[in-house]
Amino acid sequence: GQNTSTVTQNGSGNLQGTLQLGSNTSTIDQDGLNGGLSSGGSGNVAGVLQVGANTSTISSQGDRNIAGVAQFGIGNDADIDQGVGYAEDNQAYTVQTGLNNTASQKQRYDNNWANINQNGNGNTATQDQSVLANQRAGNIADIDQDGDDNTATQTQRGRRNDADITQDGDDNTATQTQTGRRNMAVATQDGDDNMSTETQDGRDNESMVLQNGNDHTSNVDQDGRRNDSDVQQYSDDQVSTVIQDGRDNESDVFQTSFIGGGNTSFVSQVGDDNDSDVNQFSVLFGGGNSSTVLQDGDNNESDVDQLSFFGPGNSSFVSQVGDNNMSDVDQSGRANNSTVAQLGLGNDSTVDQNGTGNISLVGQAGGLFGGNMSNVDQDGTGNNSIVGQLGSLNNSMVTQDGTTNLSVVGQAGFGNTSTVTQNGTNNAQLTGQLGAGNIATTTQTGTGNGSVTLQAGF
Q: Could you tell me which of 220, 218, 266 has the C-alpha nearest to residue 238?
């Protein structure tokens, strides 16, 4: 074959080496001239090794930049563009093996490090790094793809950001965008047709995405400082979205299925020091579980655990607006539905559903003089519970063990207490309390019992 090599060097102490076997094309331009104002171009190093029929282009503008390309195969294309003018101490490396892979690396200002390693056919990798000022610490970007038709894109603006993408399989897509300082993003995908997007704007944010299987989707968006997100998805068809806006928020999402449907999780945290933990399992022909967590305020905490099997998945919705609210939802079975809405300060809700088709609705508002507390425990089939509390230090406990029992509790005021226990079938209970210090206790065992309690006083 016929190889072509073009080298242009302006400056002093620049080094280049090219070795080509086959029908390759290589272009190297090392030039430190900054609009004619500087001689520049000192100590740049470029090396190219190509075997097959590949194309490589390297442009290094500045001092002490290092660029290396190694390509083996046919139709691979590597493009390295380092700096303008005084760009210094950047490093970029590309290794490609296979057919028709494409790598593009762009570095601006100083001290950036970038690496691309692709093995397979039709893969595309793009890295764009800028420190936004001279003489600043740079960014780190690394892409490793093994398979066919994978796409990875990394964009960094700022200092000391660290981005890492590893993809093993076919037709995977990963995108990382970092703006600010000291952000870290890691995406690891093993399988086919997975998609991961990580966006970070601020400082010291950390995002980890691990997807193992096929057809997973993960979206992480962090805006602020010291936010932490960890997403792990296994098997197939899991979907996760995490949005963090503020400081020191933490989110953990774990989703998996075994002979079951894909799970869906949505987490939004606005404020500071919020904590969300979502664990979803779908096994033995269980439908996908669905979880939504919305936190707006400071120091709110939410924990959701869902297990579905032999039927439709469970559904959980949690909304917390205010400070120091806590929600714990535990669902095991199929087609259970839980909704928790908390507004104010220091409210606490616990929901435990074990069975089929149970429904729980909890709404709590207030907490100025101390938070409200609700505990709902449903074990059986088709039980319904509604709890509404307004004020401070109200306490509700509902236990339903049986089939198609109905409980409604409404409390407003200060320090009211309601305890409801239903064992049996088709029992119905209504409790309404207004004022301060009211106490209501209802216990029903059997079939078709009815209870109504209304109390008002101060």
A: 218
